[in-house]
Amino acid sequence: MRPPKLDPLFAPATSLEGVGPKLSALLKNIVPVDVSDREVRIGDLIFVLPQGMIDRRNRPGIAYAPEGAIVTLEVRVDRHQPPPSGNRSVPYRVFAHDDTGELALTFFRGHATWLEKQLPEGETVIVSGRMEWFNGRPNMVHPDHIALLEDAASLPLLEPVYPLTSGLSGKVLRKALSAAVERISPLPEWLDASLVARERWQSFDSALRALHHFEEPEDIAPESPAWRRLAYDELLASQVALALVRSRMRRLAGRPLDGDGRIVEAVKAALPYSLTGSQANALEEIEADLADPERMVRLLQGDVGAGKTVVALLAMARAAEAGGQSALMAPTEILARQHYATIAPLAEKAGLTTAVLTGREKGAERAQILAGLADGSIDIVVGTHALFQEGVSYKDLVLAIVDEQHRFGVHQRLAMTAKGAAPDMLVMTATPIPRTLVLTAFGDMDVSRLTEKPVGRQPIKTVTLPLERIDELVERMQAAVADGQKIYWICPLVDESEEIKLMSAEDRFKKLQPLFGDRIGLVHGRMKGADKDVAMAAFKKGETRILIATTVIEVGVDVPDATIIVIEHAERFGLAQLHQLRGRVGRGSKPSTCVLLYKEPAGETARKRLSVLRDTEDGFLIAEEDLKLRGEGELMGTKQSGTPGFRVARLDVHSDLLEIARDDARLLLQRDPDLKSERGEAIRHLLYLFGRDEAVRLLRAG
Fold first, then answer.
1. Cα dist. 137→58, 59, 193, 399, 571 in Å?
2. Among the residues of 499-650, which ranges form H helices?
3. Which helix (H) or strand (E) holds 424?
4. CA angle, residues 541, 546, 549, in degrees to nearest 5
5. Closest Cα partner for 539 from 334, 347, 344?
6. pTM, entire model
């Protein structure tokens, strides 16, 4: 069903001259999209855009060439000086001169035949490369380019710099990318003609060529017209795809979930506190959606500790009043069991039956849960993606709740839909998301925000400390443990890495265990689920007082009397992740502290990140800063989790285009909901081009 004009771009990279399986495997590491499950295509390569450039226009003459500068020189070759026979450790030198002085061209392991052909004695040649001076003598080691005078036009004066990976040279990559760009043919224009005219944009293929074969340094800036054109194309593809998902999900008619309020009030009565204002507002919006015959597709955003789980439980109580079942899905087993521990006692007091279902439930226990879901005797089930696997059926699933949505894709949302008769959907995230990212990642949803912390929560004092002062910190920890406090200690790695010299969780545990004995525990993602539970339970009960952990405890872990968290190598984490980790303390009534241990010298971005965290607890402000510092690809862990970010668009630069794209997508689908007009057909090219195939599949499915 793919438009035939796109076939050249969907051909494998190995169809390009000079690109074999070995090079194709290296290219996987640099294309701006996850291709771990398939081979690299030409259409992946065209979006590997220049990150900078080398300017070879500087032609100062030998004597005036500065140390370390890239220069281009016109020189006459005087003589060759091969190394002594058989001595490969001595370089091959070629001496040349211009009107200002003499230059040595140095080649390690140089091949005489090739060098004699490239640099014939007595000929004038053009050489370009980095200038080095030794003892007052100019030298150029392995020039980047050599050309005879008559071939000087072939020398690229402005050369793009692309991202590289081990084993891949810039020269080889440039050749492959140049060949890929040549495969682009003109495509039907999918943009509104008035927008193209107003912005003075080139066509899609012309814009790509302009970025790969630029004429001035400013041509490859993200603010350049060519880059903005491609960024808008990608944002439009994203917004059209989200709008199609939204319209198809809502087209599945829901049913009004009305109740008498009896179970909701019973849950509220069981709470040890009153709802905050924003919790009450969010619940009101959710209940209005549930009462509407149109399906609810809503995002509930709440900062760390804002009380999303309670709002979710009250929504599930409303679903139970209407006679239906609810399912809450979390991305990890730890988080699923944490939710269950919060929900089950409150639900029980309101007369609701609950269960937990993860990959760990086996045999008779699992069979009993599956039977309860199938016959409707279980009102609420909490679990991992196991809730929506084949073999799990519900009597009447009316509400599906997903926590930490950014860990799941749109296709998983659609899989949940298939488990019931178009159940209402509530998506929750404890990662505060900047408004621009809400539009890109959750544009198919209505949004509710929890902006207050529950009454009684204490502010968290955040301090930064260089790793050199770790001994002082450990002394204070000994005093804190003696005082009965509980401490998290977070490390960035599970075990020692040869590539990254950082303290791992296992190494830190070994270093601290002699000081704290059996009062210290360890938990990380490679442990078995049961072992994690034992370690977490010991910490909760106070049997251990220090828990060494990786980011497995990032989201949802609730130990209210933990008052200190140490984050080692804090400069290695993103702002949003640091904020999430900090939220593991300050959950009770006692003052709490977050210690950010960093290795000096910290870079400018790392210092800025740590100071932002030290100065504010506002998760939404932190998220906006994180977007500026890191870009949307890393925010919310999308690079780590394999969720594709953008190939071209950068929300820190192109956010002004996002709202235009959203409005354009809405208007387009109002006029042409099935994309059958001339522009609609062109938009189908765009969706395929930017990997939004799922939206095209929705169109085909009707």
1. 20, 18, 59, 77, 43
2. 505-516, 529-541, 575-582, 604-615, 619-630, 638-641
3. strand 424-429
4. 105
5. 334
6. 0.64
Is the CA virtual torsion 339, 591, 274, 619 positive or negative?
A: negative
Question: Which residues partner with 383 through β-bridges?
Answer: 329, 357
Q: Which among 39, 213, 190, 154 is positioned nearest to 684, based on CA atoms?
A: 190
Query: What is the 3-class SS of 19-49, one letter each residue?
Result: CCHHHHHHHCCCCCCCCCCCCCEHHHHCCCC
* Residue 318 structure tokens: 């409303």
The DSSP 8-state label assigned to residue 86 in this structure reads T
Mind listing the pLDDT tens digit for each residue in 604-646?
Answer: 778 888 888 888 887 777 777 776 665 544 443 333 333 336 8
DSSP string, 222-284: TTSHHHHHHHHHHHHHHHHHHHHHHHHHHHS--------SHHHHHHHHHSSSPPPHHHHHHHH
439 vs 659: CA distance, rounded Å: 8
Pairing of strands 325-329, 354-357: unpaired
Q: Are 635 and 626 in contact (CB under 8 A)?
A: yes
Q: b/e per residue, 294-327, with b = 16+ CB within 10 A?
A: ebbbbbbbbbbbbbbbbbbbbbbbbbbbbebbbb
Query: Tokens 């190494």 map to which residue?
Result: 507
237 neighbors 690 (Cβ within 8 angstroms): yes
**154-211 pLDDT per residue, tens:** 888 899 999 888 889 888 999 999 999 999 999 999 999 999 999 999 999 999 999 9
Rounded Cα gap, residues 427 and 401, in angstroms: 6
Torsions phi, psi of 400, nearest 5? -110, 125
Rounded to the nearest 5°, which phi and psi values hold at 324?
-110, 175
Three-state SS letters, 310-361? HHHHHHHHHHHHCCCEEEEECCCHHHHHHHHHHHHHHHHHCCCCEEEECCCC
Is the separation of the CB atoms in 450 and 300 below 8 Å? Answer: yes
What does the alpha-carbon distance between residue 468 and residue 667 come to, in Å, rounded to a whole number? 58
Three-state secondary-structure class, residue 498? coil
Would you state the pLDDT for residue 641?
Answer: 30
| Cβ–Cβ < 8 Å for 658, 439 | yes
Residue keyed to tokens 């226990």: 365
Q: Taking the CA atoms of 656, 657, 661 and 667 in sequence, report the sign of the dihedral they define.
A: positive
**Residue-level pLDDT at 497:** 45
Distance CA 238, CA 227 (A): 17
